[in-house]
Amino acid sequence: MTQRASSNRKTIKDILAGQNLISPVDMAKAEAESAKTKKPLQQAVVDLGFVDKLSVLQALAAEWEVQPVLFDDVQVDSRVAKLISDAMARKLGVLPFLREDGIVLVAMADPRDPLVLEDLRAKTGEEVRPFLAMPEDIEKELDRIYGTALDHDDGGGGDEIHDAVERKTQEMLGDILENADDIEGIEAKTDLMEVDASAPEVERIVNAIILAALQSKASDIHIEPFEDPAGKKNRLIVRFRVDGFLKEAPFRIPWSYRNAVIAKIKILTASMNLTERRIPQSGRIEVMAKGRPIEFRVETIPTVYGESASLRLLDRKSVQVDIHKLGFLDDILEKLLEQLKGIGGKKNYGMILVTGPTGSGKTTTLYACLNHVNRPDIRIITAENPVEYNIDGIVQVAVNPDITLAKDRVFNFATALRSFLRLDPDVIMVGEVRDKETATIAMEAAMTGHLVLSTIHTNDAASTVSRLAEMGPPAYLVASTLKCVLAQRLCRMICPDCKGPVTLSADEREIFRLNGFELTEETTIYKGAGCKACSNTGLKGRLGIHELLIMDETVRRVALSDLTADSIRNAAIYHSPQRMRTMVQDGLIKVLQGLTTINEVLGVSTEKTS
Known about the structure:
Layout: H1 12-18, H2 24-37, H3 41-47, H4 53-64, E1 67-68, H5 78-81, H6 86-92, E2 94-100, E3 103-108, H7 114-124, E4 127-132, H8 135-146, H9 158-173, H10 175-179, H11 183-186, H12 200-215, E5 220-226, E6 235-242, E7 245-248, H13 258-269, E8 281-289, E9 292-303, E10 306-315, H14 330-339, E11 350-355, H15 362-373, E12 380-384, E13 395-398, E14 400-406, E15 409-411, H16 413-420, E16 427-430, H17 436-447, E17 451-456, H18 461-471, H19 475-481, E18 482-494, E19 499-503, H20 506-514, E20 524-528, E21 539-550, H21 553-561, H22 565-575, H23 583-592, H24 598-604
Parallel strand pairs: 1-4, 3-4, 11-17, 11-18, 12-13, 12-16, 16-17
Antiparallel strand pairs: 2-3, 5-6, 5-10, 6-7, 8-9, 9-10, 14-15, 18-21, 19-20
Helix pairs in contact: 2-3, 9-12, 12-13, 16-17, 17-19, 18-22, 19-21, 21-22
């Protein structure tokens, strides 16, 4: 909520500084954190540990002439809290928590706003008395009362999150699921118009699907119809992809709603043809989660049992990620950042490629690199198909091969690259290098003073060099323009809620030995026992394992004469000063750090041993 202060009132900064609770240096850091995260200043001060919560509350409460409240000492009455809606409480930053003598006691992040107090009086129909509380404390209580919020950045509270998903979706679906007990009646074949897409039940179903996906931190939603010829086992399955694996939603949708649900999703995109069910269609949906816009890229496709829909979650927050938080080992990160130094004035040029299969986090890594170098004195242009995320300060171009520009010319990556060279960029990002034309133009751009970033589909870093040569560009062009190749995979992390040490087996010790690790008898690793937070898998969340190949002089000399993957890999590992670490070795280090398991590392790697 916006902090308001009239000219005769002290600001939060003035109050805290006036009581010598915080130094000017720490205040400047807190203001920067507040601006970056959109948190109120008092919350940023507490979160950074500059001042304890109680001192901040007492200082502000004394100045604003209200009483502070800590929910550790007060039992919130949920019936009083629900005098106003969840949405209104979160929007205003308030929480009615008790009723005393006919007066509703309301915790507020900013109790100075008389308009908010008037809104509360009008909504509750009772007199209200403001109390001062920390914004985060109010949010936590609202999550407890109404169900957890739509995102959990801290990743904690696994059991509570799981329970909240169940509770919230069951609450939203309500009588729809209760009536689904009559399987024979509901799952019988029905007329297409039996359930209207505008019916409130359909809206509740779609909202429940989206809510459950956000709560589960899913990357994709799949809505798939499966029909039994006898009509007795017809089902509409909803599945979420979480941490790379599919799991069914915690609820079932009646078969008779299948067409209405797909139609409602099409309506939400405002661009898809509602009546066309014979061809694939694409669109986008945007929803708000705690004030943060989240988009879904929607694809529908006709199947033999009706239309199936897939929704890819595009969380804009994920592209603002700091490159330091992507799970790189320190030495790998240092080498990668070295390749990004000196941009501007055409001093740093060449090509950087990120390789890996679909869903390995290549786009996130590229965006993290762009965020790292994004500043006013650098011009960055990207060619993407499609543009999934919008980044401030970067010129993004959506290429469309279906558009014909002239005879035998289409608007593809190669066409965009040719145009970019006339637009004076410092950094160019190309969605993917997939053919000779794109590869050649990208390398020519890299030779003429541009830093080019792109992705390519290969198994590891070394095979990327030979793959580029196979596309057609001469070996000297590949060797001279390529700066580095980063290969990566995503493996699941050990669940922190059920994580515990285990003893290494003989086979596991052998795997470490074959990959160059000398372990002591005391060495232990960790595994998850399984709990509700991780659906009894012992694994929750994902991290990257990486392989960084730097094209130094040693590797370049080999590449000019022998472009086979084995030769380049051997040169990088055994002869080059960089001593390249393989993906398996990188993963095994993270196993020793207690972040993941051996099975996960070997499961996503192409090689089991070095």
